[in-house]
Structure formats: structure tokens, C-alpha cells
UniProtKB/TrEMBL annotation:
It comes from the Eukaryota. Signal peptide: none annotated. Pfam families: AMMECR1 (PF01871). It comes from Coemansia pectinata. PROSITE patterns: AMMECR1 (PS51112). This is AMMECR1 domain-containing protein. Gene3D superfamilies: Hypothetical protein ph0010, domain 1. InterPro entries: AMMECR1, AMMECR1_dom_sf, AMMECR1_domain, AMMECR1_N. Residues 1-195 form the AMMECR1 domain.
């Protein structure tokens, strides 16, 4: 299960990278509920601005990884290499929060609507207008936070994945969809400093 200690470990990695020192953590990663230390995972950074959280980076991996190396890698990757955003700076630290999502219960869906908003994350595979295989995903909380229907979520995923043509019912039906769940933990910078 994802814990605040996992998020603290990500903050340790971020702070070390910003200070250009080796990443070491005084905060232990606790063993997961099923006894393993490998999960597909995502690390998300948000920044508080005028009372609202704004996304600053979110990157992860669908292959199971050791939590110590996976969290360290994706804490840095999502903070500095999410191409949608400028890299996180030292001055932003006090307004940051970190979320760790450990992904579980992967199931191939029967069709593009075989999932539940707020419960499942969705990962789609499709062919773009040039016939190339593309993928895109949203974590379980995204559709609910955005107030999207299943159809709107699928259309946003197609655009996120780079599909540029008109989205038709036939295009939606051609999607291969995998649904999954996640165990999520969240930690603000203030909470991190108090640990």
C-alpha cells in the first residue's frame, strides 16, 4: 500500500537533485501489504497556488519496479522531465505536494466503456492516423476530478496520445483498453518537513 513514507522518499530524491547531492533517505520505505517491493507506479507533483493545486509533473511506469529505485527515478523524472511543464525549481519546494500511486488489479476491458469513473485508471492503445501504435493513460482520480464522463475521458486520452483526426464511434471502438486501480498516498512539503 502507498504510504506517506513513499512520498517522503520522493521529496528526499527531489531535494537531493535540486541540491546536486547524492540521494539518501533517512525515511524508510515500508514493506507493502502483500510483502513485495515491486509495483508499477506513478509520482505526481502538485504546486499550491491561490488555494488550488496545479499539476507540476506526473510520470510513471506500467512495469513493476523496485520501490526504492522506481520512486527515486520517477520523483526526479516527473519533476524535471515532464515535457508539459518547466522543471521544478528550489523556490517552489515550500508549495509542493507529492502523490505516489502504486498500480494494481490490471484487467483487459471488454470495450472502451468497460470501466468505472473514480475507481479505475484507464490505459489505452490505439493506431494513429499514420498507423502507428500509440498509448495514453489517466490515473483513477483524473476523470472524477475533471468531471468527465467515460466518453469525454476516452476522447481526452486519444488527444493526450496524439490522435489528431476527428474522433468517431469507430475510432473509440477500435481502442484496446486496460483498466487498473491504484493505492495512493499524498504528502505536502510542510508534512514532509515535520517527519
Amino acid at each position: 500500500m502507498a504510504t506517506k513514507q513513499h512520498c517522503a522518499y520522493c521529496f528526499d530524491a527531489l531535494v537531493a537533485h535540486l541540491n546536486r547531492v547524492p540521494a539518501t533517505s533517512s525515511k524508510p520505505i515500508l514493506q507493502n501489504f502483500d510483502g513485495t517491493l515491486e509495483y508499477p507506479l506513478f509520482v505526481t507533483w502538485n504546486k499550491s497556488s491561490r488555494g488550488k493545486d496545479k499539476l507540476r509533473g506526473c510520470i510513471g511506469n506500467f512495469s513493476a519496479m523496485r520501490l526504492d529505485t522506481g520512486l527515486r527515478e520517477y520523483a526526479v523524472t516527473s519533476a524535471f522531465h515532464d515535457t508539459r511543464f518547466k522543471p521544478i525549481t528550489q523556490s517552489e519546494l515550500p508549495r509542493l505536494s507529492c502523490s505516489v500511486s502504486l498500480l494494481t488489479d490490471f484487467e483487459e476491458a471488454e470495450d472502451h466503456l468497460d470501466w468505472d469513473v473514480g475507481k479505475h485508471g484507464v490505459w489505452i492503445e490505439f493506431r494513429n492516423e499514420r498507423g502507428r501504435r500509440q498509448t495514453a493513460t489517466f490515473l483513477p482520480e483524473i476523470a472524477k476530478e475533471q468531471g468527465w464522463t467515460k466518453m469525454e475521458t476516452i476522447d481526452h486520452l486519444l488527444r493526450k496520445g496524439g490522435y489528431e483526426l476527428t474522433i468517431t464511434p469507430e475510432m473509440r471502438q477500435s481502442i484496446k483498453l486496460t483498466r487498473y486501480q491504484s493505492q495512493k498516498a499524498h504528502l505536502s512539503y510542510d508534512e514532509y518537513m515535520d517527519m
